[in-house]
Amino acid sequence: MGIGLIGAIIVGGLAGWIASMIMKADTGLLANIGLGIVGAVVLNFILSLFNIYARDAWLPQLVVGLVGACLLIWLWRALRGRA
């Protein structure tokens, strides 16, 4: 069933905001939401390749979104530094 669209936006925004604070990134509200949601999707996909699945609950998705958003910020900085 999942956490739903509104839940994904809330959890994604929170995960992106926490990630931007951890990574010292200066992002806005929409970027935080995007980072959290995309980060969760990307990391959930990567974890599924190893048969690891985060539960469809708020806390596991917050953790996955947070780690995924941190990875996306790191990747963006790595690619931007080389270009």
Automatic annotation (TrEMBL):
GO terms for cellular component: plasma membrane. It is a multi-pass membrane protein. Keywords: Cell membrane, Membrane, Transmembrane, Transmembrane helix. InterPro entries: Transgly_assoc. The chain crosses the membrane at residues 6-23, 30-52, 58-76. Its main location: membrane. It is found in: Cell membrane. It comes from the Bacteria. Belongs to the UPF0410 family. This is GlsB/YeaQ/YmgE family stress response membrane protein.
